[in-house]
Write a structure and sequence with these properties.
alpha+beta; protein biosynthesis; two-stranded antiparallel sheet; ligase; catalytic activity, acting on a protein; single chain; aa-tRNA-synth_II/BPL/LPL; binds phenylalanine
Length: about 325
């Protein structure tokens, strides 16, 4: 029996053969189990002899099975290693990855630049009260300048903010005249406008506010000049034109020179060679006062810019709607490698 089993083990080719042999010879219904089960029928003298013999045979077969199993497993592994070699020089399959939206990148770039000049980044609610959106900015109810910003009203007192300027009033109101403010606020704003290539009912703004003792118009000009040069290139110039906002006095609009071409092509710029990119001015004394700042002690400047406008200028985007229709072919052009 032992010899027969060992020959079979020797001849086995597959691991599954070994399992069959194990079941056939050593299993519950196998001959050895049968012998051991029949022990009761044997005489006292025969029992230890037969028992010892059966155990020896079982052990011999089991040992051989284990050894063979190890050998077969090793062989199998070697075969696998041989046949399953990977050609690491084959080109990989490209994986599609997303990237930040152009607007997100632009806003982050603007943030980094102003953080570098010591501004903190703040946020405010998109659903705003009439008070912060208008009244605290020197635009009382019935003020004709409210018509400059057609609004989406939710209730009589609540609206979708038409600009990020309410965050000026909120921040100053929070500090109550106790310390200087130097912040920017990026965010979405909403206006009742008909969408076309240059208008959108929803767009983004970045507000800037610096309130301290002895802040001057030249500080505003210096900061904006720095921004224009860092953002658009050293060869850019800025010019300030008089303008009107109820919450700044005097008010300005800033143009940037646009005769220059950059990596992504030339900026769209017709006529004068200047293009308007933001509004700003010196914070109106009434605005300071309403927020708890003494206008005799404190003054400041504020500005508001539109990142879409800036991105359109910087990259020659010809339609503001590209930012919101999210055609990946458009967006992909601006993903950094
Ligand atoms: N809030 C103004 C607008 O949306 C821009 C602005 C901000 C002007 C701050 C002056 C100071 O048009």
């Amino acid at each position: 029996l032992q010899a027969e089993a060992l020959t079979k083990v020797e001849e086995a080719i597959y691991l599954s053969d070994l399992q069959d042999i194990r079941v056939a010879y050593l299993g519950k219904k196998g001959p050895i189990t049968e012998v051991l089960r029949g022990m009761g029928k044997l005489s006292k003298e025969e029992r230890p002899v037969i028992g010892e013999l059966a155990n020896k045979v079982r052990e011999a077969i089991a040992t051989e099975l284990d050894a063979k199993k190890e050998r077969l497993e090793k062989e199998e592994l070697e075969k696998k290693l041989e046949t399953e070699t990977i050609d690491v020089t084959l080109p990989g399959r490209p994986v599609k990855v997303g990237g930040p939206h152009l607007l997100t990148s632009i806003v982050e770039e603007i943030e980094d630049l102003f953080i570098g000049m010591g501004f903190e980044v703040r946020e405010g609610p998109e659903v705003e009260t009439d008070y912060y959106n208008f009244e605290a900015l020197n635009l009382p109810k019935g003020h004709p300048a409210r018509d400059m910003q057609d609004s989406f009203y939710i209730t009589e007192e609540l609206l979708l903010r038409t600009h990020t300027s309410p965050v000026q009033a909120r921040t100053m109101g929070e500090y109550q005249g106790a310390k200087p403010v130097k912040m920017i606020c990026p965010g979405k704003v909403y206006r009742r406008d008909t969408d076309d290539a240059t208008h959108s009912h929803q767009f983004t703004q970045v507000e800037g506010l610096y309130v301290d003792k002895n802040v001057r118009m030249s500080d505003l000009k210096g900061v904006l000049n720095q921004f224009a040069k860092q953002f658009f290139g050293e060869d850019r110039e800025i010019r300030l034109r008089p303008s009107f906002f109820p919450f700044t006095e005097p008010s300005v609009e800033m143009d940037i020179s646009c005769k220059v071409c950059h990596g992504h092509g030339c900026s769209v710029c017709k006529g004068t060679g200047w293009i308007e990119i933001l509004g700003g001015g010196m914070v109106h004394p009434r605005v300071l006062e309403m927020a708890g700042y003494d206008p005799k002690e404190y003054n400041g400047f504020a500005f508001g810019m539109g990142p879409e406008r800036i991105a359109m200028l910087k990259y020659g985007v010809d339609d503001i709607r590209h930012f919101y229709t999210n055609d990946v072919r458009f967006l992909k052009q601006y993903h950094k490698a």
